[in-house]
Design brief:
Layout: E1 12-13, E2 28-32, E3 35-41, H1 55-74, E4 79-89, E5 98-108, E6 112-121, E7 124-136, H2 138-141
Antiparallel strand pairs: 1-2, 2-3, 3-5, 4-7, 5-6, 6-7
GO molecular function: thiolester hydrolase activity
Protein name: Thioesterase
InterPro entries: HotDog_dom_sf (IPR029069), PTE-AB_protein (IPR052061), Thioestr_dom (IPR006683)
């Protein structure tokens, strides 16, 4: 898919849109077991004034990947709310690089879901994120 853009095999256009991520489109996803791996070919709209992919974009997409993965893992959940998010920047990412946001479950539970995301730029580590999500079940959300 999108071979001309250098999109890796297994990735497809991410079908969930939001006003927050709309300026960063196109976003891609790969379903991998019970996780959603997000992907992005970095371009000028993703970068700060120094030409590096902005840390806010990395933080947001790591949060999205972890939240989407929690919903996929936990199933019948109305929504999740991020109650804690930390990001460690391990390296930089630049225009033209392929970024992947991959989730690892630390402790998924019925009330709280603890996760980590590892972010790579062309396969090299650029960030690690940790998040805790509050699980809001359908009965509570009504």
């Amino acid at each position: 898919m999108d071979a001309a853009l250098g999109i890796p095999a297994g990735f497809e256009r991410h079908d969930r849109r939001s006003p927050m991520t709309e300026p960063w489109e196109p976003l891609y996803r790969r379903l991998s077991g019970d996780t959603v791996v997000l992907g992005l070919r970095a371009g000028p709209p993703h970068c700060n004034s120094r030409g590096f992919v902005h840390g806010g974009l990395i933080s947001t997409l790591a949060d999205n990947a972890m939240g989407l993965s929690c919903v996929r893992r936990l199933g019948e959940v109305a929504s999740l709310v991020t109650v804690n998010l930390t990001v460690d920047f391990l390296g930089s990412a630049h225009t033209g690089q392929w970024l992947e946001f991959d989730t690892v479950f630390v402790k998924p539970g019925g009330t709280l879901c603890f996760t980590q995301a590892f972010v790579t730029a062309d396969g090299q580590p650029c960030a690690r994120a940790n998040a805790v999500f509050r699980v809001v079940k359908k009965a509570m959300a009504a």
